[in-house]
Each structure stands twice: as structure tokens, then as C-alpha cells.
Amino acid sequence: MTLFQLAIIAIVQGITEFLPVSSSGHLVLVPMVLGVPDQGLAIDVAVHVGTLGAVLLFFRGEVAAVVRGMGHILSGRVSTPEARLALLLAVATVPVVVAGAFLKIAGLTEALRSVAVIGWAMLGFGLFLYWADQGGAQERVESDWNLRDAVVMGLWQAVALIPGTSRSGITITASRLLGYRREDGARIAMLMSIPTVIASGVLLAGDAAANADWSLLRDAAIGAVLAFGAAYLALALMLRLLRSHSYTPYVVYRVVLGLVLLAIAYG
Fold this sequence. Notes:
The chain is 76% helix and 0% strand.
């Protein structure tokens, strides 16, 4: 794999993992656009690790609280704020893990990686985000997150297994429907990504290890570092912009890209 292709894949993954524009959809499209073979599972694992590192660093305070909360749960103290956060994240992760396992066992994962599916998901869920963002209240904050919200957002997160939906996009949409302020809803969505990305990374790593080509280790390391930098910058920029801007620019991008993909798929 050339350094140029690797850099494009890593930067695209890093930017799109946390923006509401679908990283999985873009990773499927990059090889098609560049006219090169698919990058393979090893590189996918590497760039996922890079984006995971970025969100862990960016939300290091919340991550430390979750770790403490896990310790509280193990010691029987389940009523502390830290334990509550850890439990809510666990609850929100269950639906996507169950749905992901079902798709893999049923052999449906690859069937969803088509240009038509990505195009419809990009367009439809982009418009859904616009509707929720424009009509949703902005009264609730991050500390208001409760069990019901974790279940609702977790169920919506499972829908993101359809390429083109966007994990961050659909969970942010759910947060706006539940009345969270833009920045607070986005922060909850990003925290939800941590166990989800870990779960998907472990799954991908298992498949990659079974078919490992250790000559890819250097490329994987480069990809992880580049994805880390791109993801950290994307996170910082998006959360800053949300203090004064809506999600409309992301929606416009999704609609335009979705229409282009549908034209390609059916043309």
C-alpha cells in the first residue's frame, strides 16, 4: 500500500468517525474513488485504534470517571455518579453489540456495503438529522442522561451498522429528539463511541489476526497515528462549532454525497 493511499484512508477515518457523516460509508468508498484494492482488515483495525486513542485523550476526564465507576461497581457501590455513568454506557452499548453479532453470523455485513445502500442511508439519515436538529428542544444537558435515554440512544446506535448511517450522526439525532443541547448531545454520543469502537476493534482484530500479513505492521502503525491526529482535530473543531452553529452544514454534505452515490448506483 502506498503512503498516499494509507494517509487518505487514515485521515478520512479520523475525520469521519466522529462527524455525523459516516466513517464506514467513507471507508468503503475510498478504494472505489482511488481505484485501488480494499485496504483490508488490518488497516481498518489500525485506524480504529487511532480514533479510539483520540476520543480517550479528548475525554480523559470522563474516561477516568468511568474507570473509577467500574471499580465502584465491583466493590458494590453502584449509586455513585461514576458508577452510574459506567452502567449507562454499558446499557447503551448492548444493542449495537447484539445487532453486530447477528449481522456477522447471518453473513449480512458485506451485503450492506453497496453504493446504493450507502447512498440511501447518507441521504435519508441526513435529512432525519436536519429534522431532529431544527425541531428538537435544547434544554437538557449531559448530566441529565438517564437509563431511558441510554436505552433509546443505544437502540438508535445499532442502526448505524448500516453503512452510510453514521454512528455519531444517529446518536446525535437521538439526543436532539430527546431534547439535549447540541454540544451536550454530541458529548454523550462521543462517550458512547468508546465501548462501541473497542468492541468493533476487537472483532476486526480477531478477523485480521486470523489472516495476518505481518508486513502490514508498519503501515498499520502509520495509519493509527494519522487517524489519531485527524480524529482529535475533528472532535475539537466540531464541539467548538456546535456552540454557535447547527448541524446543517453536515446535512448539506450528506445530501449532496447521497444524491451523487444514488446517481452512480442507478446510473
